[in-house]
Write a structure and sequence with these properties.
Shape: elongated
Mean pLDDT: 80
Distance between the termini: 58 Å
Strand content: 5-15%
Oligomer: single chain
């Protein structure tokens, strides 16, 4: 029995030693296996916050009195809101929220102080962008707290509360999570497919030796690169269409804006994601390395772009990192068109950012692709 165990165990240690030696030689893969999880843990541990504070807010103060300013100050004292500034009218208020610059707005009517002086209940309206249910709950609780603080301050003059803040949620009145999540799934799946699959496809060709065979054909390097990424453009649009249909008919996700504008805005995002996948493929030598490096891109896309967690709750450094990810701008376009009915005048900056990402990533990928082939 002991002899059998020795015979069966003896080849194990040389095999283990061989694998450890091979792992030590492939320092790039070993570094990614150890370093990437550590970096992601530190980054996401500090960046992800469930409590949402500092929501960008505008004020339409039609009263312009001491009492209206006191209500605004009470709202700021909750620390749930950051004041962007005043707006001139309701049309400007709508545009600011539609663009995504503000997440909430306080509207104080002209007779606000008059009602208080006449011991009538004074009302103010608090408008919130309810597309994100998590941030909406914070805004609603902050509005209630501000009203309670002002009523406590006014309690010395009368025993009855004389101020109420009426909350009006826009874009997602029922605060349905699916309304917010389903549009984001489009961006996440496109990122996963375009980036990871493209990088794996090119590396797989290199490992099998078929990439070198393609090089000696009359196909130019630019044609070879385009031939690798263009089929995935069609795949990306098919994925997007399927999710839109399922979201509309299964989860009742609205389509408030232009479908044509949505498809046009998707193109630079797909191109940027494909170019990023191609760039990853030129930086690695194996599919294992491609998977590890792709996760370094995909996980921040999920956690720092605003897909799951509001970016307002993140530290400034994490917001800057999220701003360097194409999907952050694409999610604004998706939710702006689907939920808010935003048009080109509200989304052109995000679209221009995606075009810039696409141009830069395609340029760098083309340069790296040529060098790796040479």
């Amino acid at each position: 029995m002991r002899l059998t165990a020795r015979i069966s165990a003896s080849p194990l240690w040389p095999m283990l030693w061989k694998e450890f030696v091979q792992m030590r030689r492939d320092r790039f893969t070993l570094g990614m296996l150890i370093g990437i999880p550590a970096i992601q843990l530190l980054l996401f541990g500090f960046a992800i916050r469930m409590e949402v504070r500092h929501l960008p807010t505008v004020v339409l103060d039609e009263s312009r009195t001491a009492e209206s300013r006191a209500l605004v100050q009470a709202m700021l004292n909750t620390r749930n809101f950051d004041l962007l500034g005043p707006v001139a009218d309701r049309e400007e208020l709508r545009r600011v929220i539609e663009r995504g610059d503000a997440r909430a707005a306080l509207v104080i009517p002209p007779d606000f102080e008059v009602d208080l002086k006449r011991r009538r209940t004074a009302s103010a309206q608090f408008i919130i962008d309810a597309a994100d249910p998590l941030a909406s709950q914070t805004a609603i609780s902050g509005a209630a707290l501000a009203a309670a603080m002002r009523n406590a301050a006014l309690a010395g003059r009368t025993a009855t509360p004389r101020l109420e803040v009426r909350v009006r949620p826009w874009y997602n009145p029922a605060l349905e999570s699916a309304t917010y999540i389903v549009p984001g799934v489009i961006g996440i799946l496109l990122t996963l497919t375009m980036t990871a699959v493209t990088s794996l496809a090119v590396v797989r060709e290199r490992e099998r030796g078929t990439l070198e065979q393609l090089i000696v054909t009359p196909i130019t390097k630019a044609g070879l690169m385009l031939g690798k990424i263009l089929p995935f453009v069609v795949v990306g649009y098919v994925q997007m269409t399927v999710i839109l249909l399922l979201g509309r008919f299964v989860f009742d996700v609205p389509l408030q804006g232009s479908l044509v504008l949505l498809y046009l805005g998707t193109f630079p995002f797909i191109v940027a994601s494909l170019a990023l996948g191609l760039f990853i493929s030129t930086a690695v030598k194996s599919q294992v390395q491609a998977v590890q490096l792709s996760f370094l891109v995909i996980l921040p896309s999920v956690l720092l772009s605003g897909f799951m967690f509001p970016r307002e709750a993140m530290p400034v450094a994490a917001q800057w990192i999220g701003g360097a990810i194409p999907i952050t701008y694409y999610l604004r376009i998706l939710r702006g068109i689907l939920l808010r009915g935003a048009g080109l005048e509200a989304l052109w900056r995000d679209g221009l950012s995606l075009v810039a990402f696409a141009v830069v990533l395609v340029t760098f990928s083309a340069m790296r692709f040529r060098k790796s082939l040479d």
